[in-house]
């Protein structure tokens, strides 16, 4: 029997394929999704992994057997699936393992209007029902079954994104795009068609074996090819998408990475120009510059835990216009509070193309501090190491502590956050300071305590 405890995560389903996730299990999960959501109709999409079409079809069979109509939109990015769910106002399922290696696959689920499904919003019930059916057998199919249809949403998705950003007056730009053999190779040509852009494509061939590099731009080694190509081409910028193209990383004209915090601040300023006085969500390890820029542009910053379920919940609760994370997930009220790297990329193109300077100069006002980036340490006792850091910094009288997500220590000139991984014996450290020397000093002090 499949061990769902190993593959049902906090926000999605993900595991080795077919060892942990195969078509018979996908069919049961589709049936359970239909039952739990009580949906009359659902929409299903998939990425370019070799196993994805078969898994998506099996999931559809399970839903149809429970009397639910299923629309398969085929190859798509995750944010294209969110568009379909939002536009059609029905629940959705996206078959992808995002940036994970080729042997993995998974399912990202949402309710109608692209509302997230996580452990507390239906995923636990889907798992429990699937486990029950694995043990007891699936009940007979209902009569009549649902219908199965196919639909292409790529052009509609592209048109919707372009309706949200004014690109009518941008100057010609040369942009190198690294799709990492993922779904960006499918969506980028349609979204960017017709704009005054000289697009230099890298790894646009859809290939779920990822022959060039892993489609995970959060790892610096996967950006090396793009950085070199931007410099070689004399391009204005580079864009790197992850496997399911819901995240986008930006490279400036020098081949240097632009901090996702700086992109968050830049897009926040633009969204606040559209929606004056709005709220902007940021997680607690984005830069100090993000709430500063939000306030400077008349908005209200709201700090949350790391993770898309927390961001989306705060977006819904506060009516926020925008939200950003250090991991290059960007969320928009105009996009059903869902994350879309493509829309963030269009904002960067619009901001760059409507002024004469280079990207490095444009983002400098949004990138004000020295940051360590996220540093992972393998530890045997996460709580003990965190307590050691707390005790050491508690001897100072110039710091404050909070435990919104892990341990955050804040001083006048720096802050650090130490968070345990939920799935691995790791502690994740982030440090930011007003200057690099201070950042490096605090970083090294904390790492000595963590790895002691």
UniProtKB/TrEMBL annotation:
Residues 6-131, 156-255, 263-369 form the Alpha-D-phosphohexomutase alpha/beta/alpha domain. Transmembrane segments: none annotated. It comes from the Bacteria. Gene3D superfamilies: Alpha-D-Glucose-1,6-Bisphosphate, subunit A, domain 3 (3.40.120.10), Alpha-D-phosphohexomutase, C-terminal domain (3.30.310.50). Residues 374-446 form the Alpha-D-phosphohexomutase C-terminal domain. GO terms for molecular function: intramolecular phosphotransferase activity; metal ion binding. One of its GO terms (biological process) is carbohydrate metabolic process. InterPro entries: A-D-PHexomutase_a/b/a-I, A-D-PHexomutase_a/b/a-I/II/III, A-D-PHexomutase_a/b/a-II, A-D-PHexomutase_a/b/a-III, A-D-PHexomutase_C, A-D-PHexomutase_C_sf, Alpha-D-phosphohexomutase_SF. Its cofactor is Mg(2+). Keywords: Isomerase, Magnesium, Metal-binding, Phosphoprotein. CDD domains: PMM_PGM (cd03089). The keyword Phosphoprotein applies. The keyword Phosphoprotein applies. Belongs to the phosphohexose mutase family. This is Phosphomannomutase/phosphoglucomutase. It comes from Streptomyces paludis. The lineage of its organism: Bacteria, Bacillati, Actinomycetota, Actinomycetes, Kitasatosporales.
């Amino acid at each position: 029997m499949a061990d769902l405890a190993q593959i049902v995560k906090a926000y999605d389903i993900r595991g080795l394929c077919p060892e942990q996730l195969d078509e018979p299990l996908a069919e049961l999960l589709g049936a359970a999704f239909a039952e739990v959501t009580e949906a009359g109709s659902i929409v299903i999409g998939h990425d370019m992994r070799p196993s994805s079409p078969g898994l998506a079809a099996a999931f559809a069979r399970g839903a149809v057997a429970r009397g639910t109509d299923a629309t398969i939109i085929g190859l798509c990015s995750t944010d294209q699936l969110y568009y379909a769910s939002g536009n059609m106002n029905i629940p959705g399922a996206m078959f992808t393992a995002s940036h994970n290696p080729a042997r993995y696959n998974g399912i990202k689920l949402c309710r109608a209007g692209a509302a997230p499904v996580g452990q507390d919003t239906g995923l636990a019930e889907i798992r429990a029902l699937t486990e029950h059916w694995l043990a007891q057998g699936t009940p007979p199919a209902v009569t009549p079954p649902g219908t199965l249809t196919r639909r292409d949403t790529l052009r509609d998705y592209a048109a919707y994104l372009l309706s949200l950003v004014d690109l009518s007056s941008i100057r010609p730009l040369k942009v190198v795009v690294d799709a990492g053999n993922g779904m960006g190779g499918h969506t980028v040509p349609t979204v960017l068609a017709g704009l005054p852009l000289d697009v230099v494509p890298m790894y646009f061939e859809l290939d779920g074996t990822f022959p060039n590099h892993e489609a995970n731009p959060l790892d610096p080694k996967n950006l090396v090819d793009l950085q070199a190509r931007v410099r070689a081409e004399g391009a204005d910028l580079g864009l790197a998408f992850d496997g399911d193209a819901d995240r986008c990383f930006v490279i400036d004209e020098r081949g240097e990475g632009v901090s996702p915090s700086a992109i968050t601040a830049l897009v926040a300023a633009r969204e606040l120009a559209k929606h004056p006085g709005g709220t902007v969500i940021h997680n607690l390890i984005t830069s100090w510059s993000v709430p500063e820029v939000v306030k400077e542009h008349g908005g209200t910053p709201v700090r949350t835990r790391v993770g898309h379920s927390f961001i989306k919940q705060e977006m819904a609760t506060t009516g926020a216009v925008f939200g950003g994370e250090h991991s290059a997930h960007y969320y928009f009220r105009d996009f059903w509070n869902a994350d879309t790297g493509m829309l963030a990329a269009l904002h960067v193109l619009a901001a760059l193309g409507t002024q004469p300077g280079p990207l490095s100069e444009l983002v400098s006002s949004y990138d004000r501090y020295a940051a360590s980036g996220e540093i992972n340490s393998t530890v045997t006792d996460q709580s003990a190491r965190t307590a050691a850091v707390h005790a050491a910094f508690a001897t100072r009288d110039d710091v404050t502590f909070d435990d919104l997500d892990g341990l955050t220590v804040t001083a006048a000139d720096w802050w650090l956050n130490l968070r345990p991984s939920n799935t691995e014996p790791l502690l994740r450290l982030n440090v930011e300071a007003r200057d690099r020397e201070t950042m490096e000093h605090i970083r090294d002090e904390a790492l000595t305590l963590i790895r002691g």
